[in-house]
């Protein structure tokens, strides 16, 4: 009752002002009005599964949707979303049969949605738990499954009470790690809980498998998603003896591109831009002579890690590191700066040893240019002719997840 009162106050007093002031709020409302007015096209299938994700968290759902379609080819998939920011990606996924916005979290709208589609089960990616939606689904005896969940310890009494109430609606919780399981059980001791891992690993591997890996002419190191703060350390640490350097700025800014080019060109390096040739045709073989390659195109970074001998992940000298996952899936040792606590995979893989060098980890933290240079040299000498293997990802998260819940909800 308290939650419903808070929602009523928000919709009555706050949302109208946000509607006037913010474009994304107007898009949020218009999407739901359009969905409500749209002709109701029934999905005819024995099994209908609803997947819900908040924007980019759809990436967690895609591997499970693919696996469901393989094992139950006659099922239908409905994907609901909260904001429009990731809508194009969801709509372009051919394995999703219908895309609709999640209704306003009110008793009438959520109950109407659930009675219209009559889902066999509802899958929620990682975080986006809406109390009224959970309540109405449980009242209709629809299984609710939360997957790829991470859980930090909660000591605050009010927050613990709130999450205990949310989790008690769920039929099953699939978490990433043993630590997450312990933290969930500390909140709700009788939770039905499994450890399956992070389904993004499957998604990264899948995306890489859709394209041929990049072949380099010489040993190559990749600096991915870098900012000017990262470049200041990278530039002074780099030496031509380390082979080729591929630099992928996080933002497509001409000024930063020229800063990188001018710095290395004045030192006698051969500097090229990816856009200088038809990269869509020739990208599988970077057979152009270069010392420094500046990648001024979006969407190609994960493929660049595959045959590089090492990688530096940007943001880690600025504020927070970007994803290390693509490099790790490619079995490419990673270097990060001091700002990496935001990334769970970075913390875990600091403890994963890369054979045969016992001092080298899958993720290695450095704090200055001297450490940076020494570590690049170490990786170059030890692994340029001996590609390390510290990851073994074979789409196992989604398969194990579905294997454990078959017969329970599916």
Summarize the structure in short:
The protein has 410 residues and is an alpha/beta fold. It has helices at 2-21, 23-37, 58-71, 87-91, 107-117, 131-139, 157-167, 178-187, 200-209, 228-237, 254-265, 279-282, 301-304, 325-329, 344-349, 369-383, 396-405, and strands spanning 48-53, 76-81, 98-101, 121-125, 144-149, 172-175, 193-195, 215-216, 220-226, 244-249, 271-273, 285-286, 292-294, 310-313, 334-336, 363-365.
Summed up, the helix count is: 17
Structural class: alpha/beta
Determine Rg (CA atoms, Å).
Answer: 24 Å
Largest sheet geometry: 7 strands, parallel
Task: Give a structural overview.
With 410 residues, this protein is of the alpha/beta class. Helices cover 42% and strands 16% of the residues. It has helices spanning 2-21, 23-37, 58-71, 87-91, 107-117, 131-139, 157-167, 178-187, 200-209, 228-237, 254-265, 279-282, 301-304, 325-329, 344-349, 369-383, 396-405, and strands at residues 48-53, 76-81, 98-101, 121-125, 144-149, 172-175, 193-195, 215-216, 220-226, 244-249, 271-273, 285-286, 292-294, 310-313, 334-336, 363-365. It has a seven-stranded parallel sheet, sandwiched between helices. Helix 3 (58-71) packs across helix 17, helix 5 (107-117) packs across helix 6 and helix 10 packs across helix 16. The protein is elongated, with a radius of gyration of 24 Å.
Spell out the blueprint of helices and strands.
Blueprint: H1 2-21, H2 23-37, E1 48-53, H3 58-71, E2 76-81, H4 87-91, E3 98-101, H5 107-117, E4 121-125, H6 131-139, E5 144-149, H7 157-167, E6 172-175, H8 178-187, E7 193-195, H9 200-209, E8 215-216, E9 220-226, H10 228-237, E10 244-249, H11 254-265, E11 271-273, H12 279-282, E12 285-286, E13 292-294, H13 301-304, E14 310-313, H14 325-329, E15 334-336, H15 344-349, E16 363-365, H16 369-383, H17 396-405
Parallel strand pairs: 1-2, 1-4, 2-3, 4-5, 5-6, 6-7, 8-12, 9-10, 9-14, 10-13, 11-13, 14-15, 15-16
Helix pairs in contact: 1-2, 3-9, 3-17, 5-6, 10-16
């Amino acid at each position: 009752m308290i939650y419903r009162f808070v929602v009523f106050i928000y919709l009555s007093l706050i949302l109208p002002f946000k509607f006037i002031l913010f474009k994304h709020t107007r898009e949020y409302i218009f999407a739901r009005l359009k969905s409500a007015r749209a002709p109701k096209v029934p999905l005819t299938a024995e099994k209908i599964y609803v997947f819900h994700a908040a924007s980019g968290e759809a990436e967690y759902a895609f591997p499970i949707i693919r696996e469901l379609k393989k094992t139950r080819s006659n099922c239908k998939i409905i994907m609901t979303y909260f904001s429009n920011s990731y809508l194009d990606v969801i709509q372009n996924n051919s394995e999703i049969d219908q895309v609709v916005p999640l209704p306003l979290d009110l008793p009438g709208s959520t109950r109407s949605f659930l009675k219209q589609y009559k889902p066999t089960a509802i899958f929620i990616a990682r975080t986006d738990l809406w109390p009224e939606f959970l309540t109405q689904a449980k009242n209709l005896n629809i299984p609710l499954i939360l997957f790829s969940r991470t859980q930090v310890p909660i000591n605050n009494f009010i927050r613990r009470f709130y999450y205990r109430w949310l989790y008690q609606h769920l039929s099953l919780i699939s978490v990433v790690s043993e630590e997450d399981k312990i933290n969930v059980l500390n909140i709700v001791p009788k939770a039905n809980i499994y450890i399956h891992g992070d389904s993004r690993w499957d998604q990264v591997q899948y995306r890489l498998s859709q394209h041929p890996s990049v072949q380099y002419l010489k040993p190559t190191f990749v600096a991915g998603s870098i900012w000017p703060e990262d470049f200041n350390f990278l530039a002074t640490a780099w030496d031509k003896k380390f082979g080729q350097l591929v630099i992928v700025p996080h933002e497509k800014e001409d000024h930063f591109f020229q800063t990188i080019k001018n710095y290395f060109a004045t030192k006698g390096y051969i500097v090229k831009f990816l856009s200088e040739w038809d990269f869509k045709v020739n990208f599988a073989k970077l057979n152009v002579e270069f010392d420094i390659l500046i990648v001024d195109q979006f969407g190609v970074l994960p493929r660049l890690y595959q045959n590089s001998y090492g990688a530096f992940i940007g943001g880690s000298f600025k504020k927070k590191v970007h994803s290390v996952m693509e490099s790790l899936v490619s079995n490419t040792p990673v270097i990060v700066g001091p700002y990496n606590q935001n990334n769970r995979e970075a913390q875990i893989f600091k403890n994963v040893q890369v054979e045969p060098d016992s001092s080298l980890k899958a993720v290695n933290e450095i704090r200055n240019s001297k450490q940076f240079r020494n570590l690049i040299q170490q990786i170059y000498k030890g692994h340029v002719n001996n590609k390390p293997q510290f990851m073994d990802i074979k789409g196992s998260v989604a398969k194990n997840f579905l294997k454990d819940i078959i017969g329970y909800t599916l």
